[in-house]
Predict the structure.
Amino acid sequence: MVFLMMYGLVASAVRERSDSWLVGESETLRQVALTTPKDALYGRIVGEVAELATQEFAFDGSGKHSAGNTVFFFENGESGEPPLWVGPSQNQALIDAVQKLRIHERSAVSVTVPGWKLPFRVVAADLGPGMGRIYLGLQDTSARSMLTQLLLWFVLGWICMVAFGFVIAVLSMRGTLKRVDAITSAAANIGTADLSSRVASADKPNDEINRLARTFNTMLDRISASVNQLQTLTDSVAHDMKSPITSVRGRLEAALSTDDMNLSRELVAGAIESLDRLSEIVTTSLDVAEAEAGALRLRREPSDLADLIHRVAELYAPAFNERHQTLTTLAGKPVQAMVDQRFIVRLLSNLLENELRYAGDGAQIMVILTETEGKAQIRVRDDGPGFPPNLLSHVFQRFAKGDKSEGHGLGLAFVRAVALAHGGRAWVRNLDAPGGAEIVIEFPTFTADQMSFPPQAESLDPSRVPGVTQPNNDVIVTSS
Amino acid sequence: MRLLVVEDDHTIRDFLSRALTEAGFLVDACAQGAQAERLALEGVHDAMVIDLTLPDMDGLDLIHRLRAQGVGAPVLILSARRSVDERVLGLDRGGDDYLTKPFAVAEVLARIRALLRRSTPNQPEATRLRVADLELDLIRREAHRGGTELQLTQQEFALLEYLCRNAGRVVTRSMVLDHVWKMRFDTSTNIVDVHIHRLRNKVDRDSDKPLIRTMRGVGYVLKD
């Protein structure tokens, strides 16, 4: 469209130029014709002037004759005398065509003449009453060819631009597709055992493909982290479960092959104990896994945390006595919270078991319950050896345990999982002075709007639980 | 007393049947829900033990259908499903108690007995318990062994009472936690052992005939 418009504009400008030349020249010739006496020389003088004028156009600027340009001058008198003609020799068709015209003065018209490829632009000028008319015609082949050439250039330019655009599009598409292809092949490489493959990505440009690549890599990182976690988990499970299974099998085999009834009973009883341990690992692993996946179903009911703490502390008091440990509970005021009591009891039991095992003989253990700003905190602290420094950052991970630990490494993982499932959090730290460890569990307490909710089993939305997305942010390390 | 055991795993079905028969019950056992429904509709069973995962129907549906057809015998649900929701659902659908796998046979027996007690008219509560030369006064919360008063804490008395009420029967650690401390959780904790140990020190130390015995791998039993 733009090309066509430009072509039209240029064409009309060229035509205007030749038209205005024609008009001006015809005026000059009219003056000449009027001022020249009509004698024998009249024909020659006007003829020569016309000839000069025609030559002005018939030649280009460099003096060469532009073959295509044809100019004619023609005067027909009223008196039927032979007309004055300057121009190409095959003139009869032109004269006939021009004479048939009714042309107004000073305006150019197009005349198509048989035998001539291009139309002539013709201007007429009256010489006065009874004096006849003069005609000046121009077939501007060079302008025409210029226009044709222009058209040609335009078309060529258009083709070039289209081709160029096409090449650019193809190139950029291929570049894009190549990058998409890289992502595809990286994706194809995954699924086998190898999760290390990554898509090459850059920060700049921040275009869709790079964003896709980065998202893809982040996804891979996450997957490989979970797979790694799963790997450690399965390794630990394999270890923690295979040992009891092996011992069960061994004891039962031994029980089969002995004739001593008492020994046989003893072996079978040992096998059952191993199985209980196994069963507990499975149950707790499932609980922790469900809680971490936000799928632990809780049966929450309004509960007094102080009461729960006292009950569990009472249960454990004799055990602390036996180890000459002192268990002090500072939980005077009732603190109401919507919790699943069975899980909280197990949580507290795990914490106290932990103290029994690791705080050391004679240790002072305190369980402190406080409530501030809608949050209940249960702090369990001791003056024992504290957490081993290398364990401090991941005590809450499943199967994380110290070198001297005889547990299965699920106790604190369960504690944190239960805290998270209740919309709370858990963290540990080693106390600076006089030393010892502190584990803090924080729950939201009972609020008025919770009161109106009937106690019901509810599932846990992990996005609402602080600490689920950043599993390590609840570990505060203060030991130096 | 006649029991119906519906369990598709034949190992579990066999040992349950054997244990319940040994405990003095008449036992009908089957693996299919449809067959169980037929048997239960005869109305001869005093209690039923029903596994939730049956080959031809869901155990909960079976219980629901039995209840709808007027079968009122108490039901102990067995299941490997462990979520609380399902416990509640199981009980809503007409189950009377719920036990998750793996379980101790002793616990199945105890729960069935409890169900049967519940379904029979209340007997007047005993105010005194006596096992051999051990005597418990439930009103005054006093215990005597061979005429000598035992100095027991409240917890110790409650534990001894529970053992006496189940004299001659094995109680597991989780049963003890459940009934004495009202805490229902399985754990490898030896906390119950600690309590039993202390109780035993008071009850059996001065006697040449120990009453509290440990059944290794299972639990404890009080008998003479």
